[in-house]
Amino acid sequence: MKKVLFVCLGNICRSPLAHGIFQRMVNDAGLSDEILVDSAGTASYHIGSLPDVRACKVSEEMGITLTHRARAFTQEHFQQFDYILAMDKQNLQNILILEPSTHKATVKLMRAYDIKHPNEDVPDPYYGELDGFVEVFDMLERSCDVLLKEIREQLSL
User: Fold this and answer.
1) Structure confidence at residue 135 (pLDDT)
2) Is 8 a catalytic residue?
3) What is the DSSP string of 31-91?
4) Among 14, 24, 54, 111, the one annotated catalytic
């Protein structure tokens, strides 16, 4: 089984969107027994909160219901997950501060998997309007598609 963790700052906008998008792709591919999906945030502002209402609205329009409750990224995640995918360079740095000397996780930017704009940040739509969430949804969907292909190849599926 491969385990994937999406990480942003508060775990209420970008990482729950990625979580929901990727979970749908995994389910649609019939791989829910092979791939576990989760998300977390590097800050503790919103622990226990549901995703931002705008993230939920955009997701609902695409047939995805977000039910994840925000939680904090911890050092233990390095041992629990195969992939830890940061939404931006600042969160990647926040993750790497906690990195133990040995672990099994591949840690990289989410958009390392974006065929249009590799290794760019997923912008934080929190202080913007709904259209920012739509833009983020599109880039996450592109990136998740490539990520799923990579994991399928690793699992020979």
Assistant:
1) 98
2) yes
3) -TTTEEEEEEESS-TTTTPPPPHHHHHHHHHTT--------B--TTHHHH-SEEEESSHHH
4) 14
